[in-house]
Protein: Proline--tRNA ligase
Amino acid sequence: MRQSQAFIPTLREVPADAEVKSHQLLLRAGFIRQSTSGVYTFLPLGQRVLQKVEAIIREEMNRIGAMELLMPALQPAELWQQSGRWYSYGPELMRLKDRHERDFALGPTHEEMITAIVRDEVKTYKRLPLVLYQIQTKFRDEKRPRFGLLRGREFIMKDAYSFHTSKESLDETYNNMYEAYANIFRRCGLNFRAVIADSGAIGGKDTHEFMVLSDIGEDTIAYSDASDYAANIEMAPVVATYEKRNEPPAELKKVATPGQKTIAEVASYLQVASEHCIKSLLFHVDGRYVLVLVRGDHEANEVKVKNVLDATVVRLATPEETRQVMNAPVGSLGPIGVKEEVKVIADHAIAAIVNGVCGANEEGYHYTGVNPGRDFPVSQYADLRFVQEGDPAPDGKGTIRFARGIEVGHVFKLGTKYSEAMNAVYLDENGQAQTMIMGCYGIGVSRLVAAIAEQFADEHGLVWPVSVAPFHVHLLTANAKSDEQRALAEEWYDKLGQAGFDVLYDDRPERAGVKFADSDLIGIPLRVTVGKRAGEGVVEVKVRKTGESFDVPVADLIETVRRLLQG
Ligand code: 9G3
Structure:
């Protein structure tokens, strides 16, 4: 492609609202433009990277026997009503009406759609297992779109779905997908970890997330410093054990704690350690209220609460709901004397509290000498807290450390969650109707482009791995006015193209400095500069990633480019 005819609107200045370097650079280098919050256009360079990433994904999906299809983004509400998710999802599900006032969703994912398709076409075990995938636009009305392509409201996902007659068959596909994902992320040059995203089962087996390690990642990975254990912090189980204080149970006392609301305030006011305090949080769980108790120095883990209660939607109660249900404000809540309708569940650490402190459900008052069991019932003890750095690793090896990651892939063993709801059954060898067993597997394709940019960019701009670069070679003349340089550049533009390389030729009448700066910004792996030594038939080849450069006689140019691109 000739840059004088290309559409690559580079920017000098850093866009104000772009906080992370991949977002800044993809905008400045003319790869993307924002249409509205969380909605982006892929300009030509961005589109070329997207296509290279998709090509890698297709190769690895096809290699494991997955078949590509393309489902509609416009999904009739009936599908979501059959699964019940029309009612359980909130404003994140983008809904619209057609001209006949019929309800639709813009697909955030396609479990319902694919299950309906397979249900209607597959009736016998002979047609299973079936592994289907698509690369398609998804819509999720994120509350806070941010970081450019990393969290958008319209984005491209590869989503695959598998259908099986047995758990063993699902396990086989799951493992194939797991390997295919590792191949994809490795071919994209990424430093990634597969982390257990399981609900508590140590050595988790039902779902894994693939995380690209990055300081700007929104997810926190809890990993062991002495094994390859790694889990999303939302799911990482806590295996710590707790010692009871050996002192006799004190009498329960209500004490005034004027204006003291947070655990820290109450603990310092009453001169007690925060681990002897009980933190009470009121949650709204599928329409009812649950008071969750965790130790004062721990944090409640909403995902664990959701999994323990097998709930669909869990959120903190609003201040109004809290006052209405507990007759007290946040900061004075406690488990003593709560209404029957409020279920009280507690993290395991609470069971070891002796003579603790909790809110008195009255503003400005707390209880001391609190003993669980004696002073309040707990309907269920469970692992409800976030794991912390220094906790013992769940696999018994080493201790937990934290790292941040960008989730780029997620694989699930779905089981019969959707096939049951949508009545996707097949007849087995004995003619008995059986419910299909499913798996689903996602990769954030547009997010992957940003994650690659984030991981490889340097202070000069983007740096693309050869496997996904928009072009292999950035060819340019140092002096746009020199006929000699232009002639040699034109000759090798053709020859490099004929040798099978994708070449971006900067033939613009710009100063060398502008061309070099734009070339560093765009991040094509190799730059070939036709400069002062054009008369001797010598050009400069520069490797973008390492900065090393060579003077190369044009006779060796093709071989040098081929060798350098192989890395
Ligand atoms: C919704 C909305 C947002 C959602 C979902 C549904 C995430 C939803 C989870 C998945 C699971 C897998 C297939 C590919 C891999 C991931 N956000 N998820 O189901 F209605 Cl608004 O998407 N789906």
